Structure formats: structure tokens, C-alpha cells
Amino acid sequence: MTNQPHLKKLSTDLSHWEVTWRKLVCTQQSALDPAHDLLHFERVVASAKWLAALENANCEIVVPAAWLHDWVAIPKNDPRRSQASRLSSEAVQKLLTQMNYPDELIPAIGHAIESHSFSAGIETRTLEAQVVQDADRLDALGAIGIARCFSTAGTLGTPFYSLEDSFCKSREPDDAHFALDHFYKKLLKLPSTFKTESGRIEAQRRVTFMIGYLAQLEQELQCTPKSSKNI
Questions:
Q1: What confidence tens digit (pLDDT) does each residue in 192-205 have?
Q2: Same domain, 150 and 115
Q3: What is the pTM of this model?
Q4: DSSP 223
Q5: How confident is the model at residue 6 (pLDDT cuts 50, 70, 90)?
Q6: How confident is the model at residue 230 (pLDDT cuts 50, 70, 90)?
Q7: Residue burial 52-77, b: 16+ Cβ < 10 Å; e: rest
């Protein structure tokens, strides 16, 4: 992301609210999941602001949704994973009401949170929801996306790759058992799911980097003895 457009003037001063939301996120995020730590939230917020400015979306909806999008955290290998965004949406709407955030904005914030999740499969009905969804998906791509993918593998105890057809050339990707398979199962396909033009362009740029990384990794693994165990 090279260009930094200016945010339009808001009727709500978000600076005070952001201090509060950041503190709340600090109390909620787990130190055991580096892929969803405070730094993840800060990156998503930064991307959301950038996209909102480019797409002329309402930051009074986008920013709180970005800060609180994963308010209810459920591990990726938990069968309730697809419910996380709905539970987060419900909890955040109650939270913002208690905090006296403008009532007229809360339903749209709730929708942006509920529909951001890939696993939930909920259609984004507003520009603001599209911006938040794209911002969150950008964090799964590029250099940071690679880092997060392997960090999650470490958290779940998943091997980095399979010795047999490591790059899924003749088998279906199985990202429940191999981290590298997640590239082929989901990550490399993400740009086609982006809703904003600005997000789609940035997503494709990051995927191009990931494809280069995979090519380099394949070269390195050609030197790995096939008798070795999964790494």
C-alpha cells in the first residue's frame, strides 16, 4: 500500500474511541495465538482506514468494526469456528450500546463484523462491510500472511508441509494436516473474493509475492532428502 489518501471529515471523533477499543482488544486477544494478537488488529485497522478513504466508506462504521471484528475468538480447529463472527457481532453491538456509541451506526457495525469472516459465508450488503472484510483478508496475504500461516501451524502443531507432493501438484490440498496446503486450499484464491477494487489490486500484488516465495521454497526443498520426516 503506497498511496495514503486522506480520510473524510467525520461527525464522530474516533480518536478517543480508538484508545478505548485498543485497550479492550488488549484484554481479549490471546497471547497463545500470535496470528490474532494485537498487532493483527492494528494492521487490519490500518488497512481498513486506507481502503475506506479510497472507496469513500464511512469510517464511523469501518473503524469500530475493524477494531472489534474478532471480539469472540474461536480457534481455527474448533467446530464452532463458523459461528465466531456472529457471536462477535452480537457481543459488540451490546458493548457499543453500553458505551453510548451512536445508536444509528451500531447495526451497520454489527453487519460488518458478522460478514467479515471467510468461514461464515455471509454476503456483505454494505460498502463498509466490504471494506472490513477486504482489510481482514489482506492480512492473510503477502509477507505477513506467510508469517501468520506458519505461526498458526506452530500453534496447532501442524507440520509445515508433506514430503509427498509438498506443493499439491497431484493431490487435493489438506490444510488440516499441512500448513503449506493452506496456500493452495485458500490463500492463493483470496483475491477473487475481494469486494473493493482497491483491495483486489493490493491482494493480487501480495499473492504475486507469495507465488515467488513458493517458487523459492520449492527450490530449497529439492535439496531435502526424501527419507526425512515431515518438517
A1: 999 999 999 999 99
A2: no
A3: 0.86
A4: T
A5: very low
A6: low
A7: bbbbebbbbbbbbbbbbbbbbebbbe
Higher pLDDT, 150 or 12: 150
Residues 82 and 148 in one domain: no
The reply to whether 31 falls in a domain is yes
The number of domains in the chain is 2
Any idea which residue has 504475486 for its cell? 208
Q: Which residues of 129-152 are buried (b: 16+ CB within 10 A; e: fewer)?
A: bbbbbbbbbbbbbbebbbebbbbb
DSSP 36: G
Question: Which of the listed residues 123, 153, 186 is the one where a domain comes to its end?
Answer: 123
The vertex-62 CA angle with 61 and 64, nearest 5°, equals 75
In a domain, 231, yes or no: no
In three state form, how does the secondary structure of 180-209 look?
Answer: CHHHHHCHHHHHHHCCCHHHHHHHHHHHHH
Q: Are residues 67 and 149 in the same domain?
A: no
Residue 48: all three cell numbers together: 481498513
Q: Which helix (H) or strand (E) is 93 found in, with range?
A: helix 84-98
Domain span holding position 90 = 14-123
Judge whether 173 and 181 are in contact, CB under 8 Å: yes
119 plus 147 within the same structural domain? no
